[in-house]
Backbone:
């Protein structure tokens, strides 16, 4: 076998079968470093594994194909965006399953959702198999931990990236609890008011919270959990917070899932806290006119002049360079 490393749990990371050793008995097989010093210094076993890292080359295709017809933005523009934003995006993708939505002919064409990494993916791209109870089989998810892997995925025609709330090392313990503020027919001013009320409630509870745009019409409030809770506990926390806010602002907020019963109120969706539930990744591009992105915000940004559609693939990297620090990063690091 060749592999990337041993994990703390004593498992192989990214193992690849090379060949059988007919010249060695099974009893000679041992974990590296498990035997005596003298045994570890024996003549190394011949290996067919490459002696140097595999070249990480992405062969880009159809860079001039128009993906956003109204703006004239191309697939090449999308790739350039993800390359430029990668220093801020990659921390959210590290050690986390990612799901693609592919638009081979741009946002005006057909699209499809893809969880399984295809068999032709290069060996240097990390994939991890996770058992699916729904399909009763293993699904091989992409894990985009470097810029080359990210750009390979985008070159497949992927526009938005959706991620799990948990990491591969702790699949049952999410990094965050999410409240998705979905306006539908409600005015955006109400979304802002509910977001600020949520911040005040979290402050009263000594809970840190962060915020980003959905890249569409709403806002996402994220409470860091530090991988200390289960998904069920995260959902319970989200439900409690949502109910308090809906009771405090009953004229503009609701937790009613049925769209026809919401009226012109903002839906506070806490049901997205669940195993295998997905969140559009921070900085992910969206397949909408204008090429908006899901942009992290400082709480000082959450005021009535805010226009969430102004954050696009054309200006987000420059805005982050000007800002320097990612205002959302704490959601990956804090343990309240």
Residues:
């Amino acid at each position: 076998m060749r592999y990337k490393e041993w994990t703390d749990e004593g498992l192989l990371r990214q193992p690849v079968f090379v060949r059988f050793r007919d010249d060695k008995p099974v009893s000679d097989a041992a974990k590296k470093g498990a035997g005596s010093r003298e045994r570890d210094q024996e003549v190394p076993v011949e290996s067919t594994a490459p002696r140097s890292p595999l070249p990480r080359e992405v062969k880009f295709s159809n860079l001039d194909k128009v993906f956003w017809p109204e703006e004239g933005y191309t697939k090449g523009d999308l790739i350039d965006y993800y390359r430029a934003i990668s220093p801020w995006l990659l921390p959210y993708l590290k050690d986390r399953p990612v799901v693609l939505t592919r638009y081979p002919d741009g946002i005006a064409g057909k699209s499809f959702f893809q969880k399984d990494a295809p068999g032709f993916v290069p060996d240097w791209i990390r994939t991890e198999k996770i058992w699916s109870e729904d399909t009763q089989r293993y699904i091989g998810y992409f894990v985009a931990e470097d810029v080359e892997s990210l750009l390979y995925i985008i070159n497949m025609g992927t526009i938005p990236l959706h991620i799990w709330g948990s990491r591969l090392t702790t699949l049952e313990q999410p990094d965050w609890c999410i409240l998705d503020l979905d306006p539908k027919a409600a005015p955006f001013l109400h979304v802002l008011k509910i977001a600020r009320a949520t911040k005040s409630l979290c402050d009263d509870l000594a809970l840190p919270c962060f915020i980003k745009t959905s890249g569409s019409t709403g806002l996402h409030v994220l409470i860091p959990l530090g991988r200390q809770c289960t998904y069920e506990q995260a959902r319970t926390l989200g439900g409690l917070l949502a109910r308090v806010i809906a009771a405090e602002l009953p004229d503009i907020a609701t937790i009613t899932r049925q769209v026809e019963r919401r009226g012109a109120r903002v839906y506070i969706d806490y049901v997205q806290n669940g195993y295998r539930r997905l969140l559009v990744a921070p900085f992910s591009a969206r397949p909408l006119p204008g090429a908006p992105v899901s942009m992290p915000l400082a709480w000082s940004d959450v005021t009535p002049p805010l226009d969430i559609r102004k954050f696009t693939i054309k200006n987000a990297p420059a805005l982050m360079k000007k800002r320097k620090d990612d205002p959302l990063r704490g959601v990956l690091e804090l343990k309240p």
